[in-house]
Structure prediction request, 149 residues.
Amino acid sequence: MQQSVQIHFQSVQRPVMMEGRDGVSSQHCHQIGTKAVGVYYRKGDSHYCLYEEQPEGWEQPARSMLKWKGNTIELQRRGTMAARMVFEPGNSYCYPYHTPYGELLMETETRMLEVLENPQGILLVVEYGLKLDGQWVSENRMEIHIQYI
Prediction:
């Protein structure tokens, strides 16, 4: 059974200084927030949210899927820019990030993941490091609030 949901993404990114991950900059944190409306459903032990989002500067919306099961979250985007991100504590995942200008190799290293459920919805919290083309670029904390409509 599908349930309509509102999904609110909140992310804080702390750029990594040129020296590497130990030189995390506290001065230039970036906060990003986006909202989308979609559907939530459960299939076996897996949870899914399907939604469309219109990232700033994109001509067409991206079709996105958020999937989680146990201690793993997967985020897939399809459209002008396509990516698949996997978050699992203690593991790193590499994958291509397709843009209209070319492809970047992205890697996530997940340190913490929490899934909290209540009668009003679900909260997913992920803390991870991000590499682009082999270089550390940021330390991140992402909160995904899924509220039943």
